[in-house]
Amino acid sequence: MKFFRLRIIIIVFVFIDLALLSGQTLPNSLKASIDSLLENKPISYVEIDKVLGPQSLDTLAITYFIKKALDQDYYAGLSYAFNQKGTVYNNMLNYVEAIDNHQKALDYSIKENNLELKIISLNKLGISYRSGDAIKTALDYHQEALELAESIENPSLETKKNINVALNSIGTIYKNLEQYDLALEQFTSALYLETELNNKIGMAFNYQSIGECLEAQKKLTKALESYRTALAIYEEIGAEDEEANCKNSIAQIYIIEGDLKMAMAILDPLLITVMDSGEKELITAVLISKGWAYMENNDFREAEINLKKGLKIAQENHFINYMSSSNKLLSELYTKTGSYQKSLFHYKEAEKFTQKVTSDLNLNYVSDVIVKYATDKKNNQIEVLAKENEIINLKLRRNKNYLLVGGLLLALFTLILYILYRQYQLKSDKKMLTLEQSMLRSQMNPHFLFNSLNSIKLYIINNEKKNAVHYLNKFSKLVRKILEASSLKEILLAEELETAELYMNIENIRFSNEIEFKVAIEPEVDPHLIKIPSLILQPFLENALWHGLSSKEGEKSILVHVTKEKREYIMISIIDNGVGRDMAEKLKENKVLKRKSIGIEITKERLSNFSRDYQNKFNIEIIDLFDEKGRASGTKVILHIPTL
To answer: Between these two residues, 643 and 37, which has the higher pLDDT value?
Structure first.
């Protein structure tokens, strides 16, 4: 929290510097110090920091130094200066400029071949990327900094500090990703080094971070011990905000353990303290903890008041984590009080903010990096041990063979699956081809061809040349359309209806044009935009002709009616006024030549295969029609055809 106030102060100073920059000149004493630094050109961080460290917020001094250092190719000094500029931008939340300056610092450290400054620059880049939520890149930079620092036999004090920076940053990333064992490993290593350096604030930070990981793992006794150790250090050095945060964590442990009296004994005076400090984030945290404690104590009214206050401050200051936790607790509270609608609302709000906190893309990437980093580290340890123990080498080689055999078996299994899939696919394609051939044979059956040509021949014999030419044209056009459509999986509805009309015109010759055939299309259906499986109407028209109308006396009609059934369906109805199915079956028994309707069965099977390529299924209904006296008055076939 103090760091937050420091950031505001830095921003104010920087803006004052920028406002006065054009009218200011450097004091002669400061110029002399910078000129002396440029003359000696030290390469260690500590020596450069002695001169430029006190001027890190002085934009004029840093700009003056950078200009002079560029003229003299003083790369070590440039690396330090650009890192200082990057830190200022980072504290101003301008992460783009911060990263740009830290990258320049890294480039100059590489030009200087200065390992110490390179490690510092890598860590600075990692901090800026982590601040901007680019977790995957941040982890890469911190890991590179850590590996370089650990490779130095006798690291400087600054390098040791940067080992801790890397360990703490990596640990924080692991903790946020709920990789608590890996996080504990980093924080424990950092704690050991901070103790060596006697860095109290660093020790307290690591004790608190260890406590948070242990709490997440439900190891509450050990977590409480770590929190108390951190609290003692914070009290010793007078870090008031950090002390308050640590007390809140301890109170939450008591809430989890059910010791609500002890929790409230901490939270009541703590809320007064943080309210006096004015730290919004701490106030939010303590209010939420108090609301939680009241809820666990079944004091639902006080719980609601405190949680709502905490949520309001979190919303005003965009504290996403607290917005998530307060909504989650309010959802639980309203469930307990039976206000399920409110509970659902706050549950959804909590989920929304939880998803904002965790990015799936970064999570997947970082998880891979975590595994890679952990694996690489373990492999390095195995290689060192392998030099001392030959047995480990034998185990590693055996494991390698297992992996190789496993890989071959996996490849073989994959190949078998592929072959089986291809066989299934070929079998399916063959079945589809067979159905298409059967469909074509049913459309172009010899009876139809013979009867059609016979009818045309009759016109020629009777010297009705005009009718003969007219129907011959229709017949040739129908044959051409059937042949063209048979090579296509789908055709436009308009084409299918035209083919059906041609078929009916030719068949009507044999019925002395007694059959009235109509096509009705509803306005909301555009037949030029809708595609359907090819040649599916003719079998049903043929069935209506030969089983429904051929034995009927009087008026004979067939209506094809196309309507929009639903958003994703059209409905095609084929309605005849024939004798009905029952009578057709009886008449069929008495016929010498029995026509078998194989076309309909083939069409049904084709439509079943087509369904695999659509979200919805094809469906066929056959309905018997009756007049007012209950007598059969025809048949209605309904095709439900999906358009999606």
So the answer is: 37
Please report which confidence band the pLDDT of residue 158 belongs to, taking 50, 70 and 90 as the band edges: confident
Stated as kind and residue range, the H or E segment containing 247 is helix 240-257
In angstroms, the Cα distances linking 546 to 282, 454, 552 are 87, 18, 10
Q: How confident is the model at residue 398 (pLDDT cuts 50, 70, 90)?
A: confident
Cα 518-521-522 angle, rounded to 5 deg:
140
CATH number of 153-238: 1.25.40.10
Numbered ranges of CATH 3.30.565.10 in the chain: 444-642
How far apart, in whole angstroms, are the C-alpha atoms of residue 249 and residue 227?
7
Rounded alpha-carbon distances, angstroms, from residue 528 to 302, 481, 496, 614:
67, 16, 10, 20
Task: Measure Cα distances from 117 to 69, 87, 105, 519 in Å.
Answer: 16, 14, 8, 84
User: Are residues 253 and 234 in contact, defined by beta-carbon separation less than 8 angstroms?
Assistant: no
Question: CB–CB of 499/538 below 8 Å?
Answer: yes
Which residues make beta-bridge pairs with 574? 560, 637
CB 57 within 8 A of CB 89: no
- CA separation for the pair 352, 360 (Å, rounded): 14
pLDDT digits (tens, 9 = 90+) for 418-431: 888 777 666 665 55
Domain 1-133 coded CATH 1.10.10: no
Q: Dihedrals φ, ψ of 634, to 5°?
A: 135, -170
Q: What local confidence, expressed as pLDDT, does residue 2 receive?
A: 42
* Per-residue model confidence as pLDDT tens digits over 166-187: 898 888 888 888 889 999 999 9
Per the structure block, which two tokens stand in for 319? 């504290």
Q: Which CATH architecture has domain 444-642?
A: 2-Layer Sandwich (3.30)
Q: Which phi and psi (to 5°) does residue 628 adopt?
A: -65, -25
Tell me the average pLDDT across 542-566. Answer: 86
Tell me the HSE value of 229 on the side-chain side, using a 13 A CA sphere.
19
